[in-house]
C-alpha cells in the first residue's frame, strides 16, 4: 500500500512511518519541520517538507498514488493553543481541511486521524475511565480543534465516501519524545533528572493522567490500516497515574534524589483523566501491553543514549 504520513518527522509520526515501512508499505512523509527533525524520518521513506496548511498536496497524492493517509501533523502544545488560538486553528483545523480536500480531489479516500482523549472529555463522569460516548466539552482551543476535525471527517465520510478511523489518544510517551507540550511530561521530567535538575510540578501533583506507550499507539494505527472498523476508538490504558506518582517512579529509575519544584496550577488543567479502551479491543483486537514502569525505563534509556 502507498501511505502518506503527515507529521512523520515528529514523535508519533516517525514511529508510525517506521512501522508502515516494516509492514511492507511504501511511505511518503510530509512535515514542515516546525517541531519535527529531518533526521527522524526513517530510511526508506520519501520526505517532502511542506506545511499542510499552506501547500496543496493534491499533485503529490496523485503522483504517489496514495491509498491511505495517516494524519499526525498538528500543533500539539495545549498551552500555545490557549495563548494563540488563531494559530492553533490555522495549523490544526485549516491544515486538516486542506489535506482532506486534497484527498478528495486526488481520489484518496482512506484517512486515519490522531485525535485526543483527555482534552475532549474533560473530567471523567462518575470517576470512571471515559468511553467514546462520554460528552465532549473541550476547554482548550486545541481540544476544540481536534473535535472540529473529527466532525469534518464525519462529513467527508457521509458525503464523499471516505473510509475514516479516528483515534482518541491518552498521554503518549516513549523513546523519541522531545519533551514539549503537556504530553511530554515524561521526557521533560526525565531529561531534567538525568542532569540533576529538579522538574517543576504544577499544582498539587495529585492530578492524574493515562500514560500509553508509543509502540501500542502505533500498533493500533497499523491494525486500522489493514482492517479498520471505521469507528472512533480510544487508545490508552484505562489506568490513572498522578503526577506525584510519575515523579516518584522516574526518580527511582534515574536515581534522582532531589525534590520537585512547584508552580501554580495551570489554567484549564484537568484533575483526572483516563480512557476506557473496551471498544478498541472489540473492534480492532487491540490492547496495550507495556507496563508503565517498563515503558519509563525504556524511555529513560533512550534519553541517556
Quick gist of this model?
The protein folds into two domains: 2-172 and 211-235, Rossmann fold (3-Layer(aba) Sandwich); 174-209 and 239-304, UDP-galactose 4-epimerase, domain 1, CATH 3.90.25. The protein is built from eleven helices and 13 strands. The two termini are 34 Å apart.
Shape: globular
Query: What is the CATH topology of the largest domain?
Result: Rossmann fold
Sketch the major β-sheet.
7 strands, parallel
Given helix and strand content, the structural type is alpha/beta
Tally of strands:
13
Question: Widest sheet: strand order?
Answer: 3-2-1-4-5-6-11
- Domains (count): 2
- Approximately how much beta-strand content do the residues carry? 15-25%
Query: How many angstroms does the end-to-end distance come to?
Result: 34 Å
Oligomer: single chain
Low-confidence stretches: none
Q: In which range does the helix fraction lie?
A: 40-55%
Radius of gyration: 19 Å
Keywords:
UDP-galactose 4-epimerase, domain 1; single chain; alpha/beta; Rossmann fold; 305 residues; 17% strand; two-stranded parallel sheet
Q: Would you mind describing this structure in some detail?
A:
The chain is 41% helix and 17% strand. It has 2 domains: 2-172 and 211-235, Rossmann fold (3-Layer(aba) Sandwich); 174-209 and 239-304, UDP-galactose 4-epimerase, domain 1 (Alpha-Beta Complex). The longest helix is centred in the N-terminal third of the chain and has 22 residues, at 85-106. It has 305 residues and is an alpha/beta fold. The chain has a 7-stranded parallel sheet, with helices on both faces. Helix 9 crosses helix 11 (292-304). It has 11 helices and 13 strands.
Amino acid at each position: 500500500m502507498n501511505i502518506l504520513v503527515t507529521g512523520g518527522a515528529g514523535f508519533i509520526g516517525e514511529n508510525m512511518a517506521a512501522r508502515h515501512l516494516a509492514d511492507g508499505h511504501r511511505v511518503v512523509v510530509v512535515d514542515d519541520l516546525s517541531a519535527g527533525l529531518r533526521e527522524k524520518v526513517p530510511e526508506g521513506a520519501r520526505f517532502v517538507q511542506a506545511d499542510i496548511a499552506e501547500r496543496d498536496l493534491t499533485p503529490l497524492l496523485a503522483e504517489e498514488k496514495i491509498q491511505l493517509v495517516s494524519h499526525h501533523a498538528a500543533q500539539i502544545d495545549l498551552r500555545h493553543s490557549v495563548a494563540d488560538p488563531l494559530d492553533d486553528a490555522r495549523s490544526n483545523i485549516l491544515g486538516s481541511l486542506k489535506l482532506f480536500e486534497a484527498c478528495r480531489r486526488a481520489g484518496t479516500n482512506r484517512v486515519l486521524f490522531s485525535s485526543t482523549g483527555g482534552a475532549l472529555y474533560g473530567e471523567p463522569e462518575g470517576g470512571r475511565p471515559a468511553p467514546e460516548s462520554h460528552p465532549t466539552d473541550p476547554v482548550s482551543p486545541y481540544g476544540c480543534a481536534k473535535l472540529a476535525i473529527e466532525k469534518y471527517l464525519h462529513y467527508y465520510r457521509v458525503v464523499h465516501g471516505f473510509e475514516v478511523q479516528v483515534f482518541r489518544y491518552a498521554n503518549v510517551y516513549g523513546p523519541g519524545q522531545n519533551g514539549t507540550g503537556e504530553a511530554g511530561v515524561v521526557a521533560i521530567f526525565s531529561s531534567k533528572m538525568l542532569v540533576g535538575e529538579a522538574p517543576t510540578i504544577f499544582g498539587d501533583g495529585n492530578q492524574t493522567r493515562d500514560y500509553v506507550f508509543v509502540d501500542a499507539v502505533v500498533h493500533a494505527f497499523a491494525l486500522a490500516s489493514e482492517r479498520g472498523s471505521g469507528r472512533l476508538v480510544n487508545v490508552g490504558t484505562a489506568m490513572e497515574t498522578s503526577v506525584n506518582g510519575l515523579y516518584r517512579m522516574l526518580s527511582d529509575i534515574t536515581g534522582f534524589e532531589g525534590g520537585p519544584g512547584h508552580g501554580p496550577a495551570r489554567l484549564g488543567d484537568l484533575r483526572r483523566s483516563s480512557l476506557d479502551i473496551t471498544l478498541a479491543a472489540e473492534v480492532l483486537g487491540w490492547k496495550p501491553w507495556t507496563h508503565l514502569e517498563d515503558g519509563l525505563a525504556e524511555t529513560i534509556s533512550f534519553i541517556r543514549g
